[in-house]
Model the fold of this input.
Amino acid sequence: MKILIADDDPQLVRALRITLAAHGYEVAAAPDGAAAVALAAQVHPDVVLLDLGMPRLDGVSVIEALRGWSSAPILVVSGRTGSADKVQALDAGADDYVTKPFQIDELLARLRALTRRRTAASAEPVVSFGDVEVDLTARTASRAGSRVHLTPTEWRMLEFLARHPGALVTRQTLLREIWGSEQVSDSGYLRLYMSQLRKKLEADPSHPRHLLTEQGMGYRLMLS
Done:
């Protein structure tokens, strides 16, 4: 699997190159945003690790450029800790976000999750978690073999999360997908529908294992 690292910190790039190669990844690296876009077009990476604060072209602009032609998962690895930076990157098309400094075990786990997401997207359109099966073709959900009734809005929310398993989906993205506009005010609607989905699909709705909230940003569906 090919990984493109886009970061202007040579020490970090060197350490990541050694670690990722030891785990079987093929690594290419770019020192700035413009070089990252050009290199991505050459090597067609399976995953992109991307810093936001790069010279020549910032991380968000790189994400937007890549999303013009590539569906490869993008994991932002940045020292920017504010929710606004994370949401901006995610809304531009990034799939997940890790804040520097990070534990290498966490980074590897996020990479595995993104890999599973890509595999799930190319496999048969049935997504499973716990005792739940979501059939994206039949547009149905079942739990322990029994059909679960979902309202149209609950289904749209679950469907979008199921099509992006493991990825952090922002509130703005869900509002746009469900109601057709990111200008719609949340006003607690997403929390309400997520609460209803947990009641119907989680073994312990008050301590969810699969339908997770990322405070201040959005939601994530974990398959395991």
